[in-house]
Amino acid sequence: MNEPAAIVARSLTRTFGKTTALTGLDFEIMRGELYGLVGPDGAGKTTTMRILSGVMLPTSGDALVAGHSVIKEPERVKEKIGYMSQRFGLYEDLTVIENIHFYADLFEVPTKERPPRIDRLLGFSNLTPFKDRLAGNLSGGMKQKLGLACALIHTPQVLLLDEPTNGVDPVSRRDFWKILYDLLREKITIFLSTAYLDEAERCTRIGLIHAGRILLEDQPALLRRSLDIRMVEIRPDNIRRAARILEEIQGIAALSVYGDRIHVGLGKTDSLQTVSGALESRGIRIDSIREIIPSLEDVFISRVARHD
Amino acid sequence: MSILRVKAITKKEFIQVGRDTFSLLMAFLMPVMLLVIFGYAITLDVNKIRTVVYDQDKSSESRELISRFRDCGYFTVEAYLDNHLDIDSNLDSGNAFAAIWIPRDFSKKLQARIDSPIQIILDGSDSNTATIAQGYILAITEEYNAKFRGVRAVPLVDARIRVWYNTELKSRNFIVPGLIAVIMSVIVALLTSLTIAREWERGTMEQLISTPVKTSELILGKLIPYFVIGLIDTLVAIGMSVFLFDVALRGSIVLLIALSSIFLFGSLSFGIFISIISKSQVLAAQMAMIGTFLPAFLLSGFMFAISNMPKPLQVLTYAVPARYFVSIVKSIFLKGSTLTMIGVEALLLVIYAVAVFMIANRKLAKRIM
DSSP assignment, residue A267? Predict the structure, then answer.
């Protein structure tokens, strides 16, 4: 494909006083991708979003969004993107339809094109029955859908969503993702950030961000197989003691506890027996032990552990 | 500049103000209340001076002197005392402002054509009223002397005073027009100072600056609704001055409204400027109060004559736009001034308005720092 990338970040760096929020971010996102920037709070997701949407300047580096530099032509960028900030950025004392019209005016959407677009946006977001309700009286999920509708009113090429489903109930989240897939079919590029790893699995490509750096980047399925460690799931009888013992063993790449199970990352050459032996010799009974396909969470934790 | 975007923001602000009871009350009820309270309460006129009388003489002469005080309209006799100690208690308690003490030999001395002193005690804790009362007392006794002598003393220099512009010397006539200026600078700056700070506080600003809206469109769009409100307030205030307070509007109402509009534009821009630099509503409101109310009230010449201020303060008043506007409103109301007479003040208002608008426009960055 010779098509130019929808988003290109070139060593994006941003500092706030003495703290560094982003350290030389590089990535390229093609048209029609649904890219997820995944990482914990404080990793630099919101800062990245703000720089890409042209509302914050990077300290150094640059980014091209829809073909325009966020430093040199932020206003051109703003015409071509739809941005949804993390906080619900709509007017709570305006109704649903008033909010949509307000953004349609700001983006100078031609009057003739408005009725069909608004009908469509209200339709797919299921907001038609609520169009005269004050935005402040909507549920969390409906607010996010209204935000999305407002961000889409000018049919942007690139959609930037900063933790769009944060604090939204599971049913609304599923609705929201259905909308995103519909948009993807129309070749819109979607760049979103999330702290939920189950959501990350739904992206076409993800980047794991931690402490202002992208640690790795790939399709979710490939990422899970990319680990150069074997994930082992153990169900011991005394989970707390078992975890403490395992932490002392050399060569354990990652360790996390899920209810009555422990996930342990082993080096490719280490065998299951090393682990089970160590536990049994200290009097721990093992109910089951098996090798599993690593989840994104396993991948992320092992990478973060290695990075730190 | 996109008219559509300016219109969008104006419409949004109108809807928001219309749905916010507090803003509505502040926009429409507060100016009326301030005008009523200040218009009735602030009066520098001195009349009905509460007076007690201790007449030891009880002669026809003393009674005539007392009736002269009582009938002139400036004094009301609250009580006749029969003990000089009561004078102290009446003045101490604030029951009386003035006391007249006529000694036992008052009429005897008058008939003998020798100096016949009476004592008048004034409460000097309100120096302004005391000074004015002193003038009345001197005039009354002077007149009484002349009458008693039978011949009117012929003064060498006879000053015939005519007061122009405010013939009756009613303080309300100059306070009310000045008040219009003060109220307008406070209300509009206070209202607008909240608008951009509110957007930052509620998180809507980040969304707003991610759209192609220009800063000038944003500021203008936010100014227009408050300009309309301010203009309505001005008309109401002018109407109240003329019909409620009987202050005659001698000049052109068109000129008054035109110059009010310019002043409004400057005040509104100042409010927006405060809103931009403070980013929080509480801070913005405080800054607007300190930045507009205090100077407009104290340094505009609205109540306190600028020429009586110490030099450094006088210099400071040149930086207070309300100063020029207060003088404009007073001139148009009382003197019937035309534009040529107040051209300098009007020009300064224009410069101020344009400058503040441009500074606000520069200060509003479409970036998060």
Answer: E
pLDDT, averaged per 10 consecutive residues of chain B (369 residues), comes to 94 94 89 86 77 90 88 88 88 89 88 85 85 86 77 64 71 82 84 88 91 93 94 92 89 94 93 89 89 86 85 90 91 88 92 94 86
Token representation of residue A193: 């950030």
**CB pair distance less than 8 Å for A94 and B20:** no
Residue B90 CA from chain centroid, whole number: 32
A103 touches chain B (CB under 8 A): yes
Task: Read off the DSSP letter of residue A153.
Answer: T
SS3 state of residue B301: coil
Give the span between the Cα atoms of A302 and A306, in whole angstroms.
Answer: 6
C-alpha angle B123-B125-B127 in degrees, rounded to nearest 5: 90
Q: Which residues in chain A are closer than 8 Å to B12, comparing Cβ atoms? A: 91, 94, 98, 102
A191 touches chain B (CB under 8 A): no
Task: State the burial class of residue B292 (Cβ atoms within 10 Å of its Cβ: 0-12, 13-18, 19+).
Answer: buried
CA A193 to chain centre: 3
Give residue B221's identity as a one-letter amino acid code: G
Contact predicate B289/B194, CB 8 Å: no
Q: Please state which CATH number belongs to domain A230-292.
A: 3.30.70.100
Are the beta carbons of A91 and B12 separated by less than 8 Å?
Answer: yes
Give B286 to chain A, closest Cα distance, Å.
24
pLDDT of residue A191: 96
- Residue A135 contacts B where some CB pair is shorter than 8 Å: no
* Biggest distance spanned by C-alpha atoms of chain A: 77
Task: Tell me the backbone φ, ψ of residue B249, rounded to 5 degrees.
Answer: -95, 105
Considering only residues B289 and A204, tell me which one the structure prediction assigns the higher pLDDT: A204
Q: Which domain holds residue B304?
A: 3-43+170-368
ipTM score assigned to the predicted complex: 0.84
* CA atoms lying within 13 Å on the CB side of residue B8: 24
Residue B110's identity, in one-letter code, is L
CA atoms within 13 A on the CB side of B113: 3
Packing angle, helices B253-278 and B343-363, rounded to 10: 30
Residue B155 lies in a domain: no
pLDDT at A53 over 90: yes
Has domain A7-224 been given CATH number 3.30.470.20?
no
Q: What CA–CA distance (Å, rounded) separates A257 from A267?
A: 19
- pTM: predicted TM-score of the whole model, two decimal places: 0.80
Closest CA to A167 of A148, A142, A189: A142
Total domains in chain B come to: 2
Per-residue pLDDT of A238-276, as tens digits, reads: 888 888 888 887 777 778 888 888 888 887 777 788 888
CA B177-B178-B183 angle, 5° bins: 100
Say if strands A229-236 and A261-267 run parallel, antiparallel, or are unpaired. Answer: antiparallel
Which of B93, B116, B149 corresponds to the end of one domain? B149
Which residues lie across from B81 on neighbouring strands? B54
What whole-number distance in Å separates Cα of residue B27 and Cα of residue A34?
48
pLDDT class of A224 with cuts at 50, 70, 90 = confident
Question: Alpha-carbon distance B26 to B192, whole Å?
Answer: 11
